[in-house]
Design goal:
The protein is built from 11 helices and 10 strands. Strands 1, 2, 3, 4, 5 and 8 form a 6-stranded parallel β-sheet that branches. α1 links the parallel β1 and β2.
Length: 309
């Protein structure tokens, strides 16, 4: 089965808990995902809201070093994808394609020059904020929100110049619309569901979804129970409800998966981890999704987006 996942926190978890990437007791490991081929996995460096300035920059460097160490240890199985050619090579060599992303623009430590540094290390996506505020602007938990800061507006423009994709998951509504008004290139929500189906600030409104779709971006469905079902009790059927709703808004070419594995304390009922994505695929086919549409959501939409950067 082909799989492209826009977001997991596994490498940050591996660094914090001194665990290997190949075989561990986390929700994602290279071993547990062995049935996916091709498999491209976005590995996020998550910047906790208590880390700012030099502390955030140093933490980014440490987690990236952990990823590079794991890539070296498992060089026969996985490679970092920085260029379009890398994505092609990963498939030709039957390797997992690792995509480096950042969850929290605080990793830039308030420095425009630092964005070039991050791009040079392979960063392809930056989630502008986590839940609180950082140098770029206000996250989803900030009320009232001031949206993008002046530095944030400069940073977004520099990210577009560097072909680092702007990610609005965790954004406040004000920041979302500031991004829409500041950017010219497609932007994405790596791990956000439908606010109509589940009324949480972390989820996207219909209008926000349409803007991302019309801009040519991506929206990754995540598996966080409280963002799937307002009761916090969710199963695979709830994942499908969000997919079906976004499809009703015309999302065939922009929907993807952004699991949030290892950023979740508890997975939906019946899901054990990365291996359970196969069950989501089977559920989609069981509900009369065509193989073409199923593959588009699980792989093709995200793959085509990244190789065209």
């Amino acid at each position: 089965m082909k799989y492209f996942d826009l977001h997991c926190d596994t490498i940050s978890n591996c660094y914090n808990n001194k665990k290997p990437l190949f075989n561990n007791d986390l929700q994602l490991s290279l071993l547990r995902g062995k049935n996916y081929s091709p498999w491209f996995q976005c590995f996020a460096v998550w910047i906790p809201d208590e880390k700012r300035g030099k502390a955030a920059a140093d933490y980014f460097d440490a987690v990236v070093q952990k990823l590079n160490d794991e890539l070296e240890l498992n060089a026969d199985k996985i490679m970092l994808c920085k260029t379009t050619r890398d994505f092609t090579m990963a498939q030709e060599q039957n390797k997992i394609g690792a995509v480096l992303t950042v969850e929290g623009g605080a990793a830039a430590a308030g420095s425009i020059e630092r964005l070039q540094y991050m791009a040079d290390r392979g960063v392809k996506v930056i989630t502008l904020t986590w839940n609180s505020s950082c140098e770029l602007g206000d996250g989803a938990d900030v009320e009232p929100s001031n949206g993008l800061s002046q530095f944030g507006k400069l940073a977004v423009k520099e990210m577009e110049r560097l072909h680092i994709v702007v990610d609005v998951s965790h954004a406040s509504d004000k920041l979302f619309y500031d991004v829409a008004n500041t950017t010219v290139r497609p932007f994405i929500a790596t791990h956000s569901n439908s606010r109509t189906i589940c009324n949480q600030r972390r989820n996207l409104t219909d209008d926000q979804f349409r803007i991302i779709k019309e801009r040519g971006g991506l929206v990754g469905i995540n598996f966080v129970p409280i963002f799937l079902n307002p009761t916090g009790k969710a199963g695979a059927d709830d994942v499908l409800r969000h997919i079906e709703y976004f499809l009703s808004l015309g999302g065939e070419s922009c929907l993807a998966i952004g699991s949030d594995f290892d950023g979740i304390d508890r997975l939906p009922h019946g899901m054990a981890g990365i291996e359970s994505v196969e069950d989501i695929a089977e559920l989609m086919l069981h509900h009369n999704y065509s193989e073409v549409l199923t593959n588009s959501i699980l792989f093709d939409n995200a793959y085509h987006f990244f190789v065209s950067l």
